[in-house]
Amino acid sequence: MGREFPVAGHVVRFDTHPEPIAVPAGTLIGDAARQAGIEIRQPCGGQGRCGRCAVRVESGSVRRRSILRLSKADLDAGYALACQTLIEGDVIVSVPPPEQIERRMTTEHTAPEVEVPAGYNAAYVQTIQRATVEMSPPSMDDQTDDWQRLLTALRVECGVDRLNASLDQLRDLGATLRDNEWKVSVTFDTTCEPPCLISVGPATETAMHGLAVDIGTTTVTVWLVDLLSGKVIAQASDYNKQIARGEDVISRIIYAGKNDGGEELRTLVLESINTQTRAVCEHAGIEPATIVKATVSGNSTMTHLLLGLPPQSIRLEPFVTAINHPPLLCAAEVGLEIHPHGRVDVLPGVASYVGADITAGVLSTGMRKSDEVTLFIDVGTNGEIVLGSSEWLVTCACSAGPAFEGAGVLHGMRADRGAIEEVWIDGDTHEPTFQVIGGGKARGFCGSGLISLVAEMFLTGVVDKSGHFNQTLVTPRVRIRRNGPEYVVCWADDSVTGEDLAITRTDIDNLLRAKAAIYAGFSLLADSVGVDLASVDRVLIGGAFGKYINVEKAIEIGLLPDMDWSRFQFLGNTSVKGAYLSLLDREARAAVAQIASAMTYLELSADNSFYDAFTSALFLPHTDLSRFPTVTAAMTT
Amino acid sequence: MGREFPVAGHVVRFDTHPEPIAVPAGTLIGDAARQAGIEIRQPCGGQGRCGRCAVRVESGSVRRRSILRLSKADLDAGYALACQTLIEGDVIVSVPPPEQIERRMTTEHTAPEVEVPAGYNAAYVQTIQRATVEMSPPSMDDQTDDWQRLLTALRVECGVDRLNASLDQLRDLGATLRDNEWKVSVTFDTTCEPPCLISVGPATETAMHGLAVDIGTTTVTVWLVDLLSGKVIAQASDYNKQIARGEDVISRIIYAGKNDGGEELRTLVLESINTQTRAVCEHAGIEPATIVKATVSGNSTMTHLLLGLPPQSIRLEPFVTAINHPPLLCAAEVGLEIHPHGRVDVLPGVASYVGADITAGVLSTGMRKSDEVTLFIDVGTNGEIVLGSSEWLVTCACSAGPAFEGAGVLHGMRADRGAIEEVWIDGDTHEPTFQVIGGGKARGFCGSGLISLVAEMFLTGVVDKSGHFNQTLVTPRVRIRRNGPEYVVCWADDSVTGEDLAITRTDIDNLLRAKAAIYAGFSLLADSVGVDLASVDRVLIGGAFGKYINVEKAIEIGLLPDMDWSRFQFLGNTSVKGAYLSLLDREARAAVAQIASAMTYLELSADNSFYDAFTSALFLPHTDLSRFPTVTAAMTT
């Protein structure tokens, strides 16, 4: 309206701003927004790497210099990176609210909320059954003993005619039957044959809970499940208290072999589980005694230590376990503080280094039901890898160390409130921007934050491909301390602990070894069955990295193979999910055993080629850059 | 030779004497022997009641005034009672040595030595199986876990492919396999399905023992069995230490209901069994840990107390047990000090007052394999009675009290060394003669001694049919003491304890009540199924009366029905024998369960007629003398 626009200029309208603005042709959308007074976040400093500045071009002509981080669907919908997109005509641009960007960037690739399996019906699919039975009281005409009276009623009610009971349970039976006037609720586990009695209680008893437990070398996770609805009603996760006795399974095994080390480790993991069990029970407002079953997953060393089985042979060639398929046990026998006669089902494993966490993980991925060739990578303290489909399964394990779980890293932590979960570094100033779980001050780095940080440091030249610091940079962020060079992400003022949060050379070495072990593992596994990684249909990633694992950055550091992002899916803790499914559903439980039997285990330590592959992968992203074309491209932008 | 013989005199030659003697016609053989200087024992004072003076008339004519105690076979062989047989011609008489008489008098009617069942072969009939298995050690080509490796070897060796093991056992497995270089001996129990692992040990391990245990209310009996040969290698028997907490099951049940009474009784019976187990092991020179199974019999109250099951409902109408068929248990769980994973098989019972002691007893009698109608009477603190054949079985119980086990009687004791086991009283002098187990000084009376004593006192008029003392007798043996009248059998000089051993009026009342309860029991049981006692083919008597139970005297006091002696058989402790058979042979074990199911239980307490029958039987031998024709005859001689 009477205002003049320069020649070769274009009109830009932002949906969040009342007035259109004029810019010269070739202006970046980001600069245009700034001119209009609109703040668009550019955590990576406008280098087109973080994807957080995505906007939607509603109409008009633009040129995208980079489409990193945008999927085909994003492009079809008109998304463009504000920092990388040039205005080449009059355009209308909408700026999504930041949380919408976050959601778009992460939800596809992170763990979905736990969903109750479709069609779940406790009465039909549960391993745990509960029946209400009413008996005629004994009389001079019917002097049947208490136990037989109960069994007869149970047979009439639900066809069960044998039931294993312990002496303790038989001792309590008579009083329970009489106190409840011969009408009781009977809970039993049908996983074994004959089924095991868990409890006899008042017929009014309705609550029935279960635990899905994942014992990681570093992290123990407990889910409290309402067995009637199938819903997960509370979750807890914390470090495995054993961690003070060694960070990886090998040091734990060595510790277990000394004096009472095994018993000490058993007590520590029990404390870890029992503490979290109390926490979830308090949170949900239930009594631990209503928990009638715990389904436990974990690597073979962890399950051995939990059960007090000697783990020594796991460590020594030829690396065998004491038992891969533990029997169904009693909570009191194991030491879990749930119903004392609750059952403890430790899921079956395959080998010393491919445990129940992996069989449960494979179950939870559903890969056994798919014809697609799937690569499943579980990144924990050990990296376990499974390749296969409905037809075949091969597996191997490699020792990654706990770096991705935040342990073995100076300021590492689990993916809890206060963890830095994503970092961007400005390519010019080398100033970082970061995102903290739960907002507020930072406390340390979780796995996804470390992956993100290392990728950014590499791409912005803070470290070179060997992880060596570039000490010529003019920034107070890179400095030398007693233990060598480090990069400060968060100054003391913004940290909860009041100290600078930095990543050190040692931390980076640990992360490189971890990612190299995993990369070498799946490469060799694919080689062993003659499958080209490029022909893998899906890559499913399990592990407790944190909520917002970033595929791009995981590829950039060479942790994941360089392939189209749409083939990746992050599943979170697949082990506890598999335990959850096995807890709920007897067919799922049978499937885990079937998976354990079906897997072919490749022993990497028997193979010199592992060492070679590992060494080659100890670089960012890899010594062989031809394996990482998109990263190579990003390095040259 | 030149010697003259008086007219109407006869020549008598004794085989033990060089010279013939001449006696007048009508001389008793006993008097002739005395004349020849030959000592023939006449413990009953020559009244023809004890049978100990039996001699054999090789040739010549005699007249037997009484043939009591002599069987048809005895008579056919020429036996005659020296005190009752008149010489009526020239005779040749042989005098058997006393021990030969004892054997003839007792062996037919007392417990035979324990015989290993014919055709016993541990490998085929045992519930316990032991296999030696050799495995290939694990290698990089075979990383099978320890437990599966053992199971696979076991399947190859003996077709067993599932085995239940406890966590403890799995914890020890790896070290055992490696210490024994993958060649081990595996012991398991096949009574349950799947079988239970008992032990894994060196392949050189050969000894394998079992226990047969009978827990009586008064007496606990333990047999140590070599499971390979099937032989009983040591026996022990002693009072149940619970006896200090009540003499019968009812007082025990009441005691168990007070504070920690149940736990105290459990501990006491465990101590009883464990003490005897140590004793038999020491005697046989074996380690208790080589005992891999204990098969336990006992009445229902005893098995409940052993297992810590509350016995209260046994005592209260409608008299039901907690459990009649206990599951197979683990020794450590029960508290038996044998191999900690040894199995404890508590045999099945029928009802509150017909327990495993009776099902085991019926098994040991073999009556289920016979078409004859058999009456089986087990005389313990409770009297349990079974009537039946291969086709049918009925049973009942009556409370006899512990008198026949030597408890509840002033100088009562178990049938051990020093026990007076048989008594004869001279009908004229009322002086007693008695026989002591093991010889030497006397300590007290065992069950058979008491039966014998009461019968003699009755027949010689020391007491009347109500058990009242005849205080007019001129003998120092009958006297009054603080607690009333008593009869002294053994003066202090001949007693180990240095005190007179007498039987009191209270003792006699207890014995009368005990025998009346048993007599009433089997009479009513026979009535209930319309069987006339006279038509019963066999009467089998179990119980720990002592070694030389005397049928005649048991009939004389009215404990047993008055019928031909040849129909009676004394079997000793049938309960421990049944446990022994069930321990050895899985078919026998199955038969016990089948017997428990087949028995029809008659509840006497539901029946007023019991009280009437009991009251009528509270006399010697009974109010209705027509039921005891031979006793009536003896009373009039």
Query: What's the gyration radius of chain A in Å?
Result: 28 Å
Described by the principal axes of the CA atoms, the overall outline of chain A is elongated
Number of strands of chain A: 28
Major sheet details of chain A: 6 strands, mixed
Total helices of chain A: the number is 19
Secondary-structure content class of chain A: alpha/beta
Strand order of the largest sheet of chain A: 13-12-11-14-16-15
Oligomer: homodimer
Biggest protein-protein interface? Answer: A-B, 46 and 46 residues
The percent range for helix content of chain A is 25-40%
- Unreliable spans of chain A are 103-112
Give the overall average pLDDT of chain A.
Answer: 89
User: What is the CA-CA span between the terminal residues of chain A?
Assistant: 41 Å
- Tell me the β content of chain A: 15-25%
How would you characterize this protein structure?
Two copies of one chain form a homodimer. By secondary structure, chain A is of the alpha/beta class. Chain A has 19 helices and 28 strands. In chain A, strand 12 and strand 13 form a beta hairpin. Chains A and B meet through helix 5 and helix 6 of A and helix 5 and helix 6 of B.
